[in-house]
Q: What sequence folds into this?
């Protein structure tokens, strides 16, 4: 009856993603670890889960013209090569997945903690950064975006966490004048190719359980729609605070 548990897990995480707009990787990977899956399988499977579940979102935002493609291209220019290089290093510098599991555990703890912090401070970022960003030239802004993409590429590949919440925080930090809907659309448009490339890399490493992935998707796809409908009726601050506390607790657990 394990498959029912996995379908329920997919539904629970999908509901949370629909409710808050973020948190898929942050919740799914720790959940799979609780079920007893090895770290590398949890991360690899979750990356493919994220790439598939977010794919419909980018099409909707593209039709609504709520994606800043120039911004997405700069982020991808940093994140995608960094993700590919990270996969190659894992492949050729370690004999087996168990050898780099401690690195994955450390990165997971770091990213969960950073994601929790970014959720709590996000409302303050836009207001505080308006003056600072105004002093940056366009080239400096693009360079910082590229560098942020590199860090996201490495850390998301090693933890499956952060493409959503941290990606959003980066965009808000560097582009405080960007409309909220374009922040969300651009974050999704960047997160999908990053998660997909990292996920394909983990398939190459043998770190994806396709049967598990199928059950997770069966539960998540209808639950995302349900969560999105309910999410429009609940206070955004309350949902972010609750999610941040959960992620912070998990982050501390995997760090120590």
A:
């Amino acid at each position: 009856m394990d498959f029912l548990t996995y379908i329920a897990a997919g539904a629970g995480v999908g509901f949370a993603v629909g409710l808050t707009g973020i948190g898929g990787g942050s919740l799914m990977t720790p959940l799979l670890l609780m079920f007893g899956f090895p770290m590398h399988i949890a991360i690899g499977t979750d990356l493919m889960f994220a790439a598939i579940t977010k794919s419909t979102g980018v099409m909707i935002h593209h039709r609504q013209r709520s994606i800043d493609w120039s911004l997405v291209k700069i982020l991808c220019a940093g994140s995608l090569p960094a993700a590919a290089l990270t996969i190659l290093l894992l492949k050729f510098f370690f004999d087996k997945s168990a050898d780099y599991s401690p690195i994955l555990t450390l990165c997971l703890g770091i990213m969960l903690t950073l994601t929790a912090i970014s959720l709590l401070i996000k409302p303050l970022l836009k207001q505080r950064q308006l003056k600072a960003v105004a002093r940056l030239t366009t080239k400096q802004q693009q360079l910082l975006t590229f560098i942020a993409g590199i860090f996201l590429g490495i850390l998301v590949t090693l933890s499956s966490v952060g493409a959503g919440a941290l990606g959003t925080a980066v965009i808000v930090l560097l582009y405080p004048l960007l409309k909220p809907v374009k922040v969300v659309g651009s974050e999704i448009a960047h997160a999908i190719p990053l998660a997909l490339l990292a996920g394909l890399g983990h398939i190459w490493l043998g770190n994806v359980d396709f049967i598990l992935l199928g059950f997770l998707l069966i539960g998540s796809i209808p639950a995302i729609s349900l969560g999105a409908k309910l999410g429009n009726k609940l206070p955004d601050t309350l949902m972010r605070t609750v999610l941040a506390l959960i992620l912070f607790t998990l982050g501390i657990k995997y760090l120590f």
